Amino acid sequence: MSTPFDRSAEDIGNIVHLEHVNLTVPDQLLATRFYVSALGLTRDPYLMTGVDNMWVNAGATQFHLPQGPAQRLRGTVDLVMPDRQALLGRLRAGAAGMAGTQFAFEEYADHIALRCPWGNRLRCFEPDTARFGATRLGIVNIRFEVPMGIAAGIARFYRELMGARADCSVDANGVATAQVAVGTAQTLRFCETSNELPAYDGHHIQIYVADFSGPHRRLSELGLVSEESDRHQYRVLDITDPQTGAPCFRLEHEVRSMTHPLFKRPLVNRNPQQSNRGYRPGADTFLP
After folding, report:
1. Would the pTM of this model clear 0.90, i.e. be above it?
2. Which CATH number is associated with domain 10-257?
């Protein structure tokens, strides 16, 4: 029976979910002002509620923000967030509390570009089914800047070693970008640049995979497993081209199985427009 649908368009690949980005921050109060008050995200009420770490929920994704010297992602995090005007209002209201830091924001036609107090870059988009599927709140893309000539090797790493859907495209100027599917309407993009890049400072991302042992076996054979965390998790530090064995880009991956106790843990998300003034019963929770 013939079908009018491209069934491969619905394939996710072995990486089924990008859950969190981990960046150390030196000031938890300032992080609260940015991620919770200005962005309107939700501090997890159950885990990491002390003063040395904070988990901030964004739909089914998170930012993990342990105490430490400020880390800088070598790229940009894309978030889907509802209600552009409400977000702009929170950003304007919160600016005074972040004066003297690197906090900034700028409006564009389809997104708002931001810098956190320590210079990390984010872009906030409104929900768009054509671009982001059913996501109404959450991390949908991380765009990394990488040295010239390595995007194809990065795509091979994810495709051949991780079992992910990954490809590499080249634009009219000969600049390549590797794109990797890491969940429903979630991608990693590795964009080549001739600009000088800062040294890697230890930030990491966390992913869930369906086939846990296959990538572990292939990565172990190449000496790429950097930590055997526990039965449900291992870590990989270096993205390496399996064709040449050459290291491409350093980015720690916290790799978890779908049997991990935290997989699909329901995350609490508040409605940032709810307040004690004009309180609306039943409107405390945001359901992404």
Report:
1. yes
2. 3.10.180.10
